[in-house]
Amino acid sequence: MSGNRNGQARIVKTAPHRPALLYTFGKSLFWLLFRLFNRWEVTGREQVPRRGGVLIIANHTSYADPPIVGAAFPRPVNFMAKSELFFFPLGPIIRRTHAFPVRRGAGDRAALRTAVRMLREGKALLIFPEGKRSPSGRLIEFEQGAAYVALASGAQVVAVGLDGADRLLPLHSPIIRPAKLRVKIGPPVDLADLGAARVTRAALATASERMAAALREVLPPERR
User: Fold this and answer.
1) Could you tell me if 56 and 75 are in contact, meaning their C-beta atoms sit under 8 angstroms apart?
2) DSSP structural state of residue 122
3) What percent of the chain clears pLDDT 90, i.e. is strictly above it?
4) N or C: the chain end with fewer CB closer than 10 Å?
5) What's the pTM value of the predicted model, to 2 decimals?
6) What angle do CA 130, 191, 104 make, to 5 degrees?
């Protein structure tokens, strides 16, 4: 994305990015495992824009959520991951799965700038707008980081509803269990009227409301 003479954002179409080898292997492995052992259903893949930056927003109930989204999404996905995970020797491995660190609860501006840059480069990026896993399995209040990234980058926003991840890998359990998984991908969320030249509090609030509504639409009633 770049600016024009009127200060408005302009999306620059870019070629798809080639994923890292470890990412490709992991995606294929998780796809196979979820299909064989979790009988997963993935719908809406045809609604994902093929080019340009895409901000993926998803509900968050389990540590299993990132690999589920990565395996289901038809494009390579980049991830924000908590900074505590990026210690040696795990850190270099995590980075090769398209993840970068974010300091949770600290208003990490560097991470937000990285997110905006990735989207302007035409990549797909996953953010959990709730900011943490929901203990009840239902949507909790959104933080405004995802809305800021969406508006500042001008990227398209796609909501992904996850159902069953908290049964596969419960909140306080290290044990993976058999569970039916459902992944539903919605159509792009329309934020075009909010602009990207100047992100205001009102625009952030409106963007968050629309993104939350889009996510509720792709979730079963008991998850909303």
Assistant:
1) no
2) T
3) 64
4) C
5) 0.85
6) 25
